[in-house]
Amino acid sequence: MRTAIYPGSFDPFTNGHLDIVERASRLFDRVVVAVASSEAKHPLFSISERVALVKETVRGLKNVEADSFDCLLVDYVRKQSAQAVVRGLRAVSDFEFEFQLALMNRSLNDSFETIFMMPKDTYTFLSSRIVKEIAHLGGDVSAFVPAHVRTALAAKWAKK
Ligand code: ADP
Question: DSSP letter string over 6-57?
Answer without folding.
Answer: EEE--TT--HHHHHHHHHHHHHSSEEEEEEE--GGG--SS-HHHHHHHHHHH
